[in-house]
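User: Good morning. I'm curious how magnesium ion would be positioned relative to this chain. Could you predict the structure with it bound?
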Amino acid sequence: MDENTGGLDGLFAPERVAVVGATETEGSIGRAITGNLVADFAGETVPVNPKYDEVLGLDCYPDVASISDDVRLAVVVVPPSIAVDAIRDCGEAGIRNVVVITAGFGETGSEGASRERELTEVAAEYDLNLVGPNSLGVMSTPSGLNATFGPENALPGSISFMSQSGAFITAVLDWANDEGIGFKDVVSLGNKAVLDETDFVEAWSDDPDTDVILGYLEGIEDGGAFIESAREATTDTPIVMVKSGRTEAGAQAVSSHTGTLAGSEQAYEAGLEQAGVLRVENVQELFDFAQILAGQPIPDSEEVAIVTNAGGPGVMTTDAVGDSSLSLASFSEDTLAELSEAMPEEANIYNPIDAIGDADIDRFEQALDIALADENVGCAVVLSAPTAVIDFDDLAEVIGERQAEYGKPVASVLMGGERTESAKMVLREHGIPNYFDPARAVRSLDSLVRYREIREREYEAPESFDVDRERAREILARADERGDNRLGVEAMGLLDAYGIPTPEGEIAERPEDAVSAARDIEGEVVMKIVSPDILHKSDIGGVRVGVPDEDVADTFEDLVTRARNYQPDAEILGVQVQEMVDLDSGTETIIGMNRDPQFGPLLLFGLGGIFVEVLEDTETRVAPVSEREATEMVDGIRSAPLLRGARGRDPADREAIVESLQRLSQLVTDFPAILELDVNPLVAGPDGVQAVDVRLTVDRDEL
Ligand code: ADP
Ligand code: MG
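Assistant: Good morning! Here's the predicted structure, ligand included:
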C-alpha cells in the first residue's frame, strides 16, 4: 500500500502522473491517455518517452528516473516486450502506484503468462499498487483524473465502479453521461495481476466520498478474503455486483453428490450472499440499485405507501410489492381520517392511495404528505400517468420536497416519454430515481430494505468444538500410505474424531471377524462392501440392511463376490458391519462439502438418500459457518417442513443437524486436503443424528 497516506490514495489522488509511452501519434492508446489527462486532470501530467522532447506541448522525459519532481502514479502504455522493464524503472524511481494499460500478458497464452508472472514478481519486489495489465485505466472525478484511453470522462458522483471488462466501462460511461449519473472512482481491473476486487472494496469502504461500490466481475480471485473485506465494508457502504460468465470448475473430476450440486455458480451465490453483496442479474439493476442507494436514505421499515392518480399502475405496483421484501403499509386511523377529509369521495384512501385521474398538484401533494407522515410508512412509490391537470416538472419538485422533509426514501414512476425528461432531471437533483415501469421502482426500494438487513447483520464467529484433530490426521495419513485418494466408510473415524455421531461399526477382513463383530452389536446389522474402487455401494448390491447373526458369514462372502463380479481388480478392504439405525422415525439428509477453486470449502445441506440429485433441494454456504449460518441452511431448504414433523411424524432434531454442519465445517477448514466429502445419509431422528455413510476425495499432495 501507498506509504504516505495508506489505502490507494496514490492511485486515485496523485498530484503528478507520468505517462510512460506518451506520444502524439494519432489513433494510438498513448496519445489517447495523454490527451485525456491533459484535458481534465487538475494535477500535472508528465510524458515519458525517449523518442520525444515534447508531447502535446508538455516537456517529455526519456525515462522516469530523470523526472526531478515526485511522481506518485505512472501509467504504462509501452509495448509488452518492454513493459516489465518499464515497471521496474518505476519501482526504482520510487513510484509506488502503476496502472498497466499494456496488453499481451496472461490473456494471450503461455508467453504472456510468463511475462505476467515476471510482472507480479517485480510488483512484489517494489511493493507496487499495480492495476492491470490489460486495463483501460482508472478515473477519479474529484481531481478530474482520467488515466484511461476511453472516449469520455466520468461525471462527478459518489458511485465507485470497478469492472473486469474495459469495454463495459466505456459503454457504461457513454450511457451514464447521458443519464446524468456520476462516479467518484472508476477502475478497469484488467488481468488483476496484483490489485483485485478485494483491494478496491477495502479502499472504497474507507473512502468518505464513495457512497456505493459497484462491480462488474467475471470472477473473484480469493473468495475467502473477499468475503471478509466485503462483510466489513457493507456495514457502511453497500456493494452491488453483477457476476457474469461461468468460472471453470475445479481441476478434480467431480465424484460426489455435493460436487454435482455445489458447483462454482453455487459458490458465488453463497459467497456473495455471505459477503453482504447485493447481487444483481443485469446491468439495468446494477445502476438502478446504485442510484437509489447513492441518492436515498435507508428506510426504517419495509412498509411502503403507494400514491397514484391511476388505478392500473397502482395495481401493478402492488403486485410487484408482493414479489419483494417490501410490504404494503397499513395506514393509521389518523392517516385514514386525514385522507378521507382531503380526498374526493371516489378516491381510494387505503393503500394504494388513488387520488384519481383529475387529481391536481395540490391533491397529489396532500396525499403524499399525509402518507409520508404516517409512522407506519417506511418508504413510498409515487406514480403518475400524464393528465391535463398535472405538470410533471411541478410534481417532480413536490416529490423532491416531501421526500426531503420526511427523510423517507421515495421512488418515482412518472410514466411517459418526452414529457418526463425535464422532470427526471428535477428528481435527480433530489436523488430520486424515476422509472417507467413500477416494478423497477419497487425493486429499487427493495434493494434499500435488503441493504438495511445486510447492514444490521451481526457476524458471529464460527464455533470451535473440542475435536480429536490428531486422530483425523492419522486416518487421512493411513489412506495416503495405501495410495488411496478416494475414501469410503473406512474413514468413518474422521467423523467420529470431529464429534459427528456415527453408529457402532467395524471393518472385517474375514467372515469370522464379521461374525464376531456382529455378535458385539445388538440385534440385526447392516453390512457394506468397503472398497475405494466402489463409490456407490448399493448400486452394485453392496449394502445389506437387517442381516441376522446367522446370515453374517454368508453375506460377507456374497458381498465380496458381488464386488469382484463388478470389478475383478477392485481393491477390497473388507466388509463393514454396522449397527442398524432406525430409518422409520428418522429422515435421510445429506451434509457435504465441495472445495471451490475461488471460495474454498462450500458446505451443503439437503434431503439425502438416493434422490438427492433428483430433488435438488439443497442449501450451500462457504465454510467456516457460524451457528446462525448453519441454522439458515437447515431452515432454508424447500422441504424444511418435513424436518419439522409432517403427517404425524416426530420432528427431526434440528439442533443436532446444525451442530453436525458446524463440526463438518471445522473438519474441512482444518484439512485443506479434503477436496470433496459426502455424508449421505445423515439420518436425522427425533433425538439426534447418525452418519451412516461417508465418502471423500483427498488431495494427497496436501497431506
Ligand atoms: P451407498 O450410498 O454407497 O449406497 P450407504 O451406506 O449410504 O451406501 O447405504 C445405502 C442406504 O442403505 C442408505 O441410504 C440407507 O437407506 C441404508 N443404510 C445404510 N446404512 C444403514 C444403517 N446403519 N441403518 C439403516 N439403514 C442403513
Ligand atoms: Mg450413501
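The chain has three domains: 9-292, 301-453, 583-702. The longest helix spans residues 438-456.
Let me know if you'd like a different ligand tried.
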